[in-house]
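Weekend entry, working from home. Most of the wet-lab plans are on hold until the incubator is repaired, so I used the time to fold the two sequences that have been sitting in the queue since the last round of cloning. Logging both here for the record. First:
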Amino acid sequence: MREENVQYFTEAEEEIIRLLTATGMKKNAAKAMVVVMKTPGITSRAIEREADLRQPDVSIVMNYFGKRGWITSHESLPGKGRPAIVYDLAKPLAEIMMDIEEEQKARVDEQLARIGKLRGFVKKEF
């Protein structure tokens, strides 16, 4: 029987995951973000193990982060076998948090604009 080597998050890391998901980030993405934050130059396989994610989930999340400009990736140069993809943060965590904050502000502004438009209809109709 194969023994699993599952990594657990610390209390602080769990709180970061909860806060990221509260901002609208999917849980798999939040878990992967914490792993990449704490381990620069991490491989996709290591992210799978440490975040307890499946390989397709890691690929989806890393593509999402890459499109946002939050991570960089490159292939490692192994001696034998297939090269592994290695990930690093592309910008400091503070800048990533600013990106998330700006997105949240934009969402709130959109919701407030919808409410204002709705109020306009209510005043006209009733």
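Second, folded right after the first finished:
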Amino acid sequence: MKISASRLAATLAARFAAVVPPPFGVRADGTDFVVDHPTGWGLTMPLEWIEDEGEERDTGQLAELIASNALESVQDAVCESSDEPWPQFAPHVMPLPGTRRDASHVYLWYGPSEHSAAISMEPIPLASVVHLE
């Protein structure tokens, strides 16, 4: 199965839109995962390259890699704009991003572990981000 860049971008945008602090906004623009900020602290992660990966990588492995990159990139953008750790786990402590996958989902969080996370996101079902046959 091949991942659909546009479906993954939309799914990631939905997960992050629920957790990023204002004034950030998160959206998908075709195959791009986009984080907007009114003063320009946003980012764009083009994902179209994942459609060329074919069967070289496992679908779950590739989805987890992209989710991990998104976690790090969003955290960097928010921290750079505010000069504060985000999300805060304890005063002035910034939790690291974390991911894991199983046969059917990718799990995303910020924190020392999935079970003690400062922020957890709804898991991404792998079936929802592959090309429909």
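Plan for Monday: verify the second prediction. The CA atoms of residues 61 and 84 lie 31 Å apart.
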